[in-house]
Amino acid sequence: MPKKVDHTERRRAFAEAAVEVIGKQGLDAVRLVDVARVAGVTTGSLTHYFNDKDQLIAAALEEVITQAHRRGNEDAGSLFEAAAAFLPLDESGQLAARVWLAFFDQALTSETLADIHRQYYDEFQSSLVERLSKESEVPKERLTMLANAIIAIVDGLLVRATLDPNGWPAQKQLDHLNLMLRSLLGDTMRAEEIL
Q1: Does CATH place domain 7-194 in 1.10.357.10?
Q2: Which single residue of 107, 108, 160, 193 could bond 113 by disulfide (Cβ 3.0 to 4.6 Å)?
């Protein structure tokens, strides 16, 4: 009897392998053979699931986004934890951040990648607005503005920590995030709601 294959899980495994290769080699240097090697399969196996390198690369970006949203929404208790989930606090976070930043340049000329980025930011903004509306007494018209300010803080810390991981270790990132969130939200949320 042939072995039953979970195609969704297989695609995800290939996307995770692509994330590893992109994070280590950069986006421009990615080759299907490198991703196949990391995934432990043949290049033909990859092309069974992805028509070309661009599809595989888009799947890698979507995998990074999916993992970040899972950490920020499902695994986070407080607003601070939700925002910190997107920072490069450990090796896997650093890898994800390198992949995320690698796509920025490409998104300037690829409508597909630009759409993926916009969708990510829209989802991040919506989840923050929802969290803020439950945890604070912020007037509704300010919720989106505050959510976007939090996103800008996270993006700034992510860039600094990714470009200078030795100068921005996990605790420094968390200390700065704490300072900025308290400064931004101090009048609208109690400390236990932020942390």
Answers
A1: yes
A2: 107
Q: Which amino acid appears at position 97 of this protein?
A: A
Q: What is the C-alpha separation between 165 and 24, in angstroms, rounded?
A: 14
Using alpha carbons, select from 151, 159, 147 the residue that is nearest to residue 88.
Answer: 159
Three-class DSSP category at 66: helix
* Model confidence, pTM: 0.81
Q: Is the pLDDT of residue 59 over 70?
A: yes
CA angle 156, 157, 163 (to 5 degrees): 95
pLDDT tens-place string over residues 147-163: 999 999 999 999 999 99
* CB contact at 8 A, 80 and 194: yes
Q: Which residues contact 127 (CB under 8 A, 6 or more apart)?
A: 69, 72, 73, 82
Q: Which amino acid is at 18?
A: A
What percent of the chain stands above pLDDT 90? 32
Residue 79 has pLDDT above 70, yes or no: yes
**Alpha-carbon gap, residue 38 to 31, rounded angstroms:** 11
Distance CA 98, CA 25 (A): 10
Cβ neighbour number for residue 132 with a 10 Å cutoff: 23
Distance CA 143, CA 193 (A): 15
